[in-house]
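Handout, section B. The chain below has 266 residues.
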Amino acid sequence: MNKANQLVIDKLSINCPQIVNNIKVFLLTEFKRAGKNKAVVGVSGGIDSSVVATLCVIALGKKNVVLLQLPYRGISSQGSERDSKELAEFLKVPRRNVLKFKINNIVDNYKQQLTPDLLRLGNIMARVRMIYLYDISKKINGLVVGTCNRSELLLGYETRYGDGACDLNPISSLYKNQIYQLAHYFNLPENILKKPPSAELWNGQTDENELGFSYDWVDPLLYFLIDKKMSSSMVSKKFGYKRSDILEILKKVNNNKFKQLLPPSF
């Protein structure tokens, strides 16, 4: 086991019952503040949305959680649709609260007019999905609950006004590895636990391939650089990360800070 993996275990280990209770209080407080009691969650069969859906059910009750499956046929895998359905059954969310809309027609219309490259097309798909989430939220007088974890937010690995849009986010302070800890604590279905993280924005896309590194590698690095405010030289010397890799990650974090800010106003 290398130093980075050991750090994930030693430093990023969380007290799952305590974290779940804290997030439950957060959700109840924010929903009460907004005068709402229904949560809308976009589910993909992935680990993040599955954990968020579970947290919402714990806090608000299964009858007050609406799950949206928003596949793009031809890219979204049958496995993801199956896993989303299995999650809903696992959580015992009423069938009337599990909705599915194919986004092909809308996305294909954008493709025709804009001829986007893969990255722009992925952004379009993420923003189209958010249109559905917010429309259903308006229909049922609910709140859209975010599914981006701390690793993604720090690295800017999200689409602004797409998957990065939400009314509140219960996992924004948890790293990807900590999300897995909660998933195992909840005993989520095996297919969800074992699936490689992917936004399924194009065929064969996975988070770690697109990022160029694993979450096991980057999570402890982000923790020591951002949370513990250690210098790059100290992190390199103490934990064996290459200085060039550290600087590249810091550059990515700094270049994407704007995604977490409200638009400047004059």
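Note. The mean pLDDT is 92. Compare this with the example in section A.
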